[in-house]
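Worked Example 4.2. Consider the chain below.
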Amino acid sequence: MFVIQLIRNISRKRKFDTWFWKYNDGNIIKEDGIAMIEGIEIVNALLIEKHHPKLHEIIFAFKDLNNKVGDK
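Applying the procedure from the previous section yields the following structure tokens:
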């Protein structure tokens, strides 16, 4: 079961990354993340406009959230 989930995560990430790099005109920043929930690795991403006034705060909160989820 774990191997199947891992393969699906990798395939899903590859497909999303291909889409992102093909259609992003340079105005969007993508931050990848991984959250560990009950022993399951959840791959996720944040998309944000690179000129957003709270860009750094949002990225920090995204990374912090991914780290805290695994602490529970």
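Residues 2-69 form one domain. The longest strand covers residues 28-37. Compare this with Example 4.1 before moving on.
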